[in-house]
Write a structure and sequence with these properties.
The structure holds 2 protein chains of 2 kinds. Chain A is of the alpha/beta class. Chain A is built from 11 helices and 10 strands. Chain A has a single domain, classed as Dihydropteroate synthase-like (TIM Barrel, Alpha-Beta Barrel), CATH 3.20.20.20. In chain A, helix 6 links the parallel strand 7 and strand 8. In chain A, helix 7 packs parallel to helix 10. The longest helix of chain A has 19 residues. Chain A is globular, with a radius of gyration of 19 Å. By secondary structure, chain B is an alpha/beta fold. Chain B folds into 2 domains: 85 residues; 168 residues, Dihydropteroate synthase-like (TIM Barrel). In chain B, 44% of the residues lie in helices and 14% in strands. Chain B contains 9 helices and 8 strands. The longest helix of chain B has 17 residues. The chains are: A alpha/beta, B alpha/beta.
Chain lengths: 322, 258
Amino acid sequence: MQLVDVKEKWTNRINTVTIGATPAQGGTRGRTVTVGGETTLPLLTFEGEIPNPPVIAGLVVDIVPPDWPDILKNAIGPEIASPAEWAQKAVRDWKVDMICLKLLGADPLGQNLSAEHAVNTVKAILKAVDVPLIIWGCGDLEKDSEVLPACSQAARGENCLIGPATEKNYRTLAAIGKADKHKIIGEAPVDINIAKQINILLQDAGFDINDVVMCQVTAALGYGFDYVFTIFERVRIAGLKGDKHMALPQIANVGWETWKVKEACADDDVLPGWGKVAQRGPRWEAATAAGYIQAGADIITLAHPETIAITKQTINEMIKGD
Amino acid sequence: MIFIGERINTGFKDIKQAVMDKNPAPLQDWAKQQTAAGANYLDVNLGAVSGKPEDMIWMIEQVQAVTETPISIDTNKLVILREAIKACKKPPLLNSTTCAKEKLDPFIEISSQYGASMIGLAMDESGSPKEIGRRVECAGLIAAAWMEAGLPMEHLYLDPIVMPLKFMQDQAKDFLEAVRQFKMLSDPAPHISCGLSNISSKATEKKLINRTFIAMAVAAGLDAAIVDVMDTDLLAAAKTAELLMNLEIYADSYLQKK
């Protein structure tokens, strides 16, 4: 019996984006990370190419997030008090591909730390590790427009990935990305149309969309994960079909989102029957990560060392076929 | 949608004069303007002004001096094509061959040698067929020869031939049907292109006819056209039609998209 050939023949390739710059490229990184370049959907290597498997960015926060559970803080260890040492540990012991620095300390609703504090943290991390760096603002538009340009300038030439650029602040991000030679994260609020809109706006502002990584405000498992999954997938399908403004690598901020939800954080006595939080937490994060990898994420941020180990194995088994 | 800018053609008086005087300004002006308007290719047509390949090369060089937009070499003369393609910095679009073997074979050979794309007209040595069946047959011959040469389908453009509404009113409907049938020739499908302005030749409401027609043609499967890219309403109609056919993801600023 002849089997029907179900292979899709996509006509377009996802852009590749390289983050980090070695001394020869004007930076100080020991290595760079390249993402994207797919000519098919995740896992379907029989159908097309996946030249760059997904990478893991170890999440580092400039202050200890007040709501993080003890199981996570303890797993990270005493280094959590020093972003530079935390980053070092993530690279040395957990073998992450890059570091994602979340500048939570700048948040006006929290500690409202100065741009100078953020700059010092960026500099300390760049000095402590030689992997590429993602710099993620606190999310307050006004504060980010002060903090991100300062950090961008401090990391000039390092070819970092900086964000998020939204419909409201894209001009600032486009300007600093161009001036200081960084890549930009375009972020949409779980909305495929706005995701495209941001890419058009960044391009209109003179920024090359070949230097953009797309992001949907990532939902953890149980909090709209399935909806975000479909958006990641639709973006990727549109990109493979030839929509140039959708043919961009995608980042999922899994680490940051997971450790906000009760299923990952709440103690065993609060959630009886859900299993021990020490195991449940990292698995909640790992399950979310595995889902986004299948949806088409190219960069995954992760916080718990155990999750990093599990996800590395997932990538090796699912994508690299080891 | 792939837009091929039609303006650098000696059929226009300013271009004709510029080529005769070897004055680059008008060509470069149109090259820049059409690129800014969103042209994906710039058609360069020497027409009847000269039969010398060096004149075509001169035109291409002037255009490439001011833009990076790829060239559409508009000639059916092989002598000119073989020389002109050497001057192209980016893989060009060859515009165009018919399905007549003595023409189609060398065009495919040149496409293959230079990694160029090609427009194949759905007509043979005796001209443009009136019946849809024969047009599909012509297009099929071109697509088959292209595939046999092992060339990627995304580099092939098939043109069902647009006839003027005013003189051959029954043909527009047939054109749309031909587009639908061409799309089924292979998977992935070839691009379908046309010389759009022909539809409104000698008519009074040229612009309205052009943009109504392009919207209908996009709905049928057209994804490329040789057009007046300075006609922003026309481009907007085509882009909107693509959204309505769910070929692109909607974004508020979709008209600004480059």
